[in-house]
Amino acid sequence: MKSHSSRLDRFVSAQTDIKRRDVRLALAKKRIIVDGEVATDISQRIGQFSCVSLDGVVLNISHPLYLMMNKPKGVVSATKDEKNKTVLDVLADQIDSEPQSIFQLNKAGKKYLSSEELEGLHIVGRLDFNSSGLLLLTNDGRWSRRVSLPERCIEKRYRVVVDKPLTQAYIDAFLQGMYFEYENITTRPVKLNILSDHVAEVDLVEGRYHQIKRMFGRFQNTVLELHRQSVGNLALESTLLPGQSRFLTLNEVQSL
Ligand code: URA
Fold first, then answer.
1. Which atom of ligand 1 lies at the shortest distance from residue 127's CA?
2. For residues 184 and 137, what is the distance between their CA atoms, to the nearest angstrom?
3. Are strands 132-138 and 223-231 parallel, antiparallel or unpaired?
4. Is 35 tagged catalytic?
5. Strand 45-46 to strand 37-38: parallel, antiparallel, or no bridges (unpaired)?
6. C-alpha–C-alpha distance, residues 159 and 129, integer Å
7. What end-to-end distance do the CA atoms of the chain give, in Å?
8. What is the pLDDT of residues 5-47, one digit of tens each?
9. Whole-prediction pTM value?
10. Of 81, 89, 128, 203, catalytic
11. CA separation (Å) from 34 to 14, 107, 155, 191?
């Protein structure tokens, strides 16, 4: 994820044919407006979602975007991949086949996701190739960093189907934490709620590499299905079918 902040003079000279050293002159003539205010300082930081105009012409327009996807199995949580279909390909398919389903309302009315906006998205918390369920996508690096901060301990709930029957020993071991030699860490307490012999809900507050598979692996038990149901209080609704995405509401964005 790249940094989206730059100095005003660098930003204006990159977007126009005004040389960097001449931006000061444009400021003196009050030609540049940033977020509704006449700009006065060439070193002002321009954020990813700032609105900058020169002589009334908007130079950039970038909106923060937040989406949830019901990730299907068999696609990679990546924006580019040589071999496999990615979650961005899944989103692009939806836009091609039913563009009206991917829209957000803004002051100007309905706004569809453009291909540039699609390419600017990144994933917040990957799911494995064969895992399914709630996946968050955004172009807002600040938000995704906040959602992923380990100290915020945002709980992620998974529904897991395993090969061998589950017992109380799993509940105890998951709660106690497991030592992962490769990372030299002990996992934080994980709540395991056994729903039936082979099905459980798992609540993680961190996201170590293949964490759930490795934890069941300690019992030589293979994870057959792994589905993320929720992240914090944001739950995947049943109307969002595998492969479908929708924009988050403002309340949902703020709740994380
Ligand atoms: N743990 C896993 O092992 N895989 C996932 O996709 C998510 C959590």
1. 6
2. 30
3. parallel
4. no
5. unpaired
6. 16
7. 19
8. 788 998 888 888 888 889 999 999 999 999 889 999 999 988 8
9. 0.82
10. 128
11. 16, 19, 38, 48
